[in-house]
Amino acid sequence: DPPPDSDADCAPDGPADPSAAASIAGRVLDPSGRPIPCAGVRLHGASGPILTVSTDREGRYVHAGLSAGAYTIQAEKQGYANRRHGSGAGDPRGKGITVRRGDRVSGIDIVLPLRPAITGRVLDDLGEPVSGVPVRAFEIRQTGDLTMAVYAPGIGVRSTDDDGRYRLFGFPPGRYLIGASFDAAVSGPDGVYGYM
Q: 150 pLDDT exceeds 80?
């Protein structure tokens, strides 16, 4: 499932009116063709990144007021793999877009694949599910002969549900460890125990 959205960074519904110079417009979609709201769409020129705009609720974006020249467009959203327009397995750099003064280029759509997710359950020593347990991902990194496990950036911490299940999403390619911890005090006359 796609990650939850926050409307705070979304563009207003409908693209802005590109009234000056050239413009490049399109949509950002998931693999099933559904719009991705609040995605960042970055415009790159010959000198590097120029401007980032956000998609609206329908996944639409527009870069307006552009000078004539060659550009590339890259879209990004947490939980999805970044992609440039026209990129693929054989050409991750994507395809450039050349505009002349006054051009109105549309249909520059980008499909963002979901990054892989890891799911599982946390059980106690009796095989019973444990709810409310924080679960973290650690990335395994190799530096010479040294192997390290560090917090996986951008993944965050998720807690297990009532059935002990968790889901971590947004993993870039790599090797990972999954860790869970839960602290509780031992108490009660009947020997009720907690997890340490």
A: yes
Write phi, then psi, for 131 (nearest 5 degrees).
-95, 160
Residues 6+ apart with CB under 8 A from 16: 62, 64
Tell which wins on pLDDT, 182 or 121: 121
Give the pLDDT confidence score for residue 78 in this predicted structure.
82
Burial of 174 (C-beta count, 10 Å sphere; 0-12/13-18/19+)? exposed
- Length of the chain in residues, anyone? 196
Q: How many helices (H) and strands (E) does the chain have?
A: 0, 15
Kind of pairing between the strands at 110-111 and 22-29: parallel
Q: Which residue has the higher pLDDT, 113 or 186?
A: 113
| Rounded Cα gap, residues 110 and 105, in angstroms | 14
Q: Looking up tokens 């390619």, which residue turns up?
A: 173
What would the two tokens of residue 72 be?
């590339």
Q: What is the 3-state secondary structure (H, E, C) of 67-83?
A: CCEEEEEEEECCCECCE
State the pTM of this model: 0.59
Tokens representing residue 190 in the block: 């009947």
